[in-house]
Design brief:
Blueprint: E1 3-8, H1 12-16, H2 19-28, E2 33-38, H3 40-48, E3 54-57, H4 74-80, E4 85-88, E5 108-111, H5 121-127, E6 153-155, H6 168-175, E7 182-186, H7 188-192, E8 202-206, H8 210-217, E9 222-225, H9 229-236, E10 241-245, H10 250-253, E11 260-264, H11 274-278
Parallel strand pairs: 1-2, 1-4, 2-3, 4-5, 6-7, 6-9, 7-8, 9-10, 10-11
Helix pairs in contact: 2-5
Length: 281
Amino acid sequence: MRRILVLRGGALGDLIVTLPALALLRARWPAARIEIAGNATAAQLARARGLVDAVHSQHEARWSTLFSASPLPAEFATWLTEFDLVVSWWPDADGALRRHFPRHAGQTFVCGEALPQQAPAAAHYCATLRPLGLATPEFRHRLADDALRRHGIVVHPGSGSPRKNWPRDRWLALLAELPTPVTLLLGEVELERGAWPVPAGVTVLPQPTLEALVTLLASCRLFLGHDSGVSHLAAACGAPCVLLFGPTDPAVWAPPWPTVQIIQRGAAMEAITVEDVRALV
């Protein structure tokens, strides 16, 4: 294989659970040029670590033509024929995308469901590559080296869905009890909810870059969060994690690292108490 194209959508966590599959491709074809179309920001993590060579945004207009019955634009069609292997995890319920591949007799096309059908999620994406003779029992990919010294607690009280979030007042109560220093990571959604009246010893870090997050998470002694992309990032950076789960299945979506502890009290996040979390800090 000289050129490989991977189609993988979603957010940060979706990219991280796909890293073991990308690592399989890189290990099998170390000299191949691997390109990925997906979350351009998150995919830079893979590019910076040599798993892919180029990143394309999933929001570029050209990709929408793959879901059309019309012929592909000539330039785009020619570019797609240059790949020896195309791997797709994009949603394709009606098979519109699959109808465009393979583009010639020498091109291999494999596809898997966008949402995981087995646990952990990373195992699902690796399983897609079995027809290529690729397999692994390792469903984790480390993003940072072990830190020589771990210090402080990092808290991320957000996720991609309000249903997966612990109540804000519980986080504020917990922050008042945590041993300092504590760093509070706030994304756009959390910032829109207004100021967080944090106690002394808590530093608010709004919307850091992903590489800044990697540096922080690789050196903290504990990470607290939800079922979120940042939690997957923390685990992949080697941070010991305590993660609060509610409506989603941790067998599928929790980072499969031995350093991760899960708290779940049914589907309602409100059922988790401050004492439940404090006991594991």
